[in-house]
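Obj.: predict assembly geometry.
Materials: sequence records (below).
Method: joint structure prediction, all chains together.
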Amino acid sequence: MAERAVLSVRRVGRITIDSILQLGYAVRFIVLTLAHSGTSFSRFRLVIRELYFIGVLSLIIILVSGLFVGMVLGFQGFHTLQTYGSESALGVLVALSLVRELGPVVSALLFASRAGSAMTAEIGLMKATEQLSAMEMMAVDPIARVVAPRFWAGFISMPLLAAMFSAMGIFGGYLVGVVLIGVDEGSFWSQMQSAVDVREDVVNGVIKTVVFGFAVTWIALFEGYDAPPTAEGVSGATTRTVVTSSLAVLGLDFLMTSLMFRGV
Amino acid sequence: MERSTLDLWVGLFVCAGIGAMLILAFKVGNMSGVTGGDTYQLVARFDNIGGLKPRAPVKSAGVVVGRVAEISFDDERFLAKVSMRVASQFKFPKDTTASVLTSGLLGEQYVGLEAGGDSGMLADGDSLRLTQSAVVLEKLIGQFLYSKAAEGDKAK
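Observations (raw structure tokens):
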């Protein structure tokens, strides 16, 4: 009995130590990546290549989801606002929910599953097939050559993708609200413009996406770099990337929202 | 992938992203409003500000001329102290009246400025002496019932 208790306490200790170690590795990894970013900027071509794979190829999913999220917001918002006779506030509802929350969060979740998992799998496989070791043998630093360009590409793409998501979503809300249902176009835009503040809403949304971009790319790259060099290891790392970065996005979002919109 | 095609796509991507941000700032947000630019500060003290909030608009004749910057409590005179930032291009006479008004029945509350006839103009940091408080619904109903009761007494 007592032995059992000792065993389970020991397991708790093991888990704690392991996770702190892992966190330490992750922090060392990101510090190394930032320190070796010089190459990414002196050879910006590397970043541009990754921008294509991470950013441009994520465009379709981001734009289509943005449009649909906006259209659904238009329908649901209209349905609820109608009961209070304030359909003209539809623009405000669509714009604020997209710019403050849905734009940054949903596009970060999509980004994690579309681009994050791909980055993890790519780097994990490079490690499994010993391409990273081969680079080291040739005195090419894999962090500077492989990891840092991907990090900067993800960091740059995320805010751009989220902005496009929000813009597309507002267009979707406009399509449903004004074109389909027939909310007055003038009040749709003018109420939106008077309620959305550039500093409080738009800039805060952009700050969120920058933080999400940092977190998701960091997690994806670290999981790939840290993956056990086997087929199972890579698949496990890919799964962990999506799960961990989704949780990180939601947790960070709660934290930032409570800091940003506390007083309003 | 050929280098020039790749460049083209990435360039398009970055431009579209920046474009989306600009749309959010100008078309969706109110960047073009009076929040930017030069402003001067006016202070008004109210008996009751109702539900007025910082960043609420300051309007004159229905046109937004500024925003409420800060609301605090003046514990010497037991009044609400409202600081407003008004765009410098709009000058108001010294005897301007400030009142807390509501747009529509359930709309947001704002500060309305009504110009007087004084020839001197308000400068940065000046206080408005004439103010009118927000209408508090409970008080209004109370007054209404009171006057109804008084009418009833007269009829007897």
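Conclusions so far: Chain A has one domain: 46-260.
To do: check interface contacts against the pulldown list.
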